[in-house]
Amino acid sequence: MSEIKGGELLLRCLQQEKVKHIHAITDGTYMSMLEPLERLQEELGIRLIVPKHEGAAAHICDGYARVTGEPAVIMACAGPGAANLVSGLLCTQAEGSPCVAITTTRRSEIGDSYEQQAAMQVGDQHGVFKAACKWSGKVDHWHRLPDMVRQAFRAATTGAPGVAHLLVPQDIFDSMGDPSTVQIQAPEQYRVSAQAKQKANEDAIQQAAKMLVDANLASVYSGNGCARAFAREALTELVEHLGIPVVKTGHGVSTFPCGHELAVHAACLGGIMARHESNVVLVVGTRLGELSGFGKSPLWGEPENVKIIQIDIEPMNIGLNRPADIGLVGDAKAVLLQLVEAVKALTDKRETHPKVAEYKAMESEWRADLNQYVADHQDPLAIGTVYSECNKFYGSDAIMTLDGGNTAWCANSFAVVKPGSIAMGTPNYGHLGAGMPQAIGAKLAAPERPVYCITGDSAFGFNIQELETAVREDLPITVLVMVDGAWGMEKTAQKRTWGREAPWFHIEHNNIRYDQVAEAMGGHGEYITKASEIHPALERSIASGKAAVIHCVIDPDSNIWPPGIEGWNALRSGNFEGVM
Questions:
Q1: Each residue of 260-288: b (16+ CB within 10 Å) or e?
Q2: For residue 107, what pLDDT is reported?
Q3: 0.85 exceeded by pTM
């Protein structure tokens, strides 16, 4: 066979991995990959998506991976491109999204191993990315490209998903070799995750099933791992058979419909009581981190009163912040299906537990307060009002991405997560600016589904340039920007803490019309100030067929004490006095 360059060999490896997009700002260090990508595009089936910033491209990959469950691929050049990429990858890794990041370095003779020579755009990339990612490796020879690509995808997808980084010197891309001398393998030939979902130990499954069936009251607490495994149907089958309540983390909001008769919101008293009064809680795919109160009192019952069955793909997460009585290591969907079978063998379908009605009544009372807050903020707007109106407007198939500080406080108003809908954000890392790129990634993954983003004006400013990417790639997402004209979370924190603002912090923004920014970039723009204008603006935005921005003027005073702020402060400080 005729020899090919390393750049083409890399593409053929990615083709075998069924990669559909490479996110990269074109650069001279990987021209040997770009040329065959252009020449062989129809054969390879891989599109080049060119972002405006590598950090934002990592968020695009995050959004894509969350919708598909498959790893996304990003490339960045030596020096500045790699440096830009790190911030986004830190977030992607923390949120548990499978991603393969490929960066270049200068030719091997002056590359990252010899930074003391002061060559241009040379630094310790391997060391930096090793600290930021799940795995980092370097290719030293043309023949090792397929093996190292396999290792990167294996690392990104095996166990708890995350970011794998591969460093490829420019001369490896440029060097020639005979493709018949290397082996390019299909994922199912070398990746466990591509063959079968990991099941838990059968003896442990039987013990867990018996514990659930024998419990006076059992409940479920579902999180990110449950969402990543697309385990909604398995979870629904289990809880409906047992008639037990389900409480969800912020990451796990898509794992079970909020409107279901067994769903109880984590932030209301009913959700807390379920964790206190259950003598068995099935924890699915969450480490019980800070936003879950670390699994400790007062949000949870004491270990001597509440037994924990914990499902997680990563063994090191079992019992991490709270002792687990039974640990089930495996893929959440596979393990839940095992539990369904084992539980059905022990008991017939049960009636809904009487406690569920009590918890739902508590949730209804809590929800009534939220609804009243929305009713009181029709003109001028509060952020919760926008959530509420989007709930009414969008159908069951919509994908929503969440971004920003004050927007997160009001996320409890995002109440109707119907089957098929997905809410995204960055609960683990709290990155500002991830929302719109995540929406772009979600739209690339599911072009047939409506995708919208709710973000703040400060958060939107971090990656506003990617609006041009959405327009250029013909991705009709809708971005609703909550505009309070300031670094809202900091401004309101000053008012709550000191009873005043501190202007010398420069927390106020200039008056920017984000709808006009969208129009200047070739998109569609809307400007609204009250609730009655939201639906018509959404209709016009979708009808435009373009990436759209709806500038929502928010009453700044509504952000000082929004619903949920007391609980947020308690979680962050660990002080629940006066809240519980």
A1: bebbbbbbbbbbbbbbbbbebbbbbbbbb
A2: 57
A3: yes
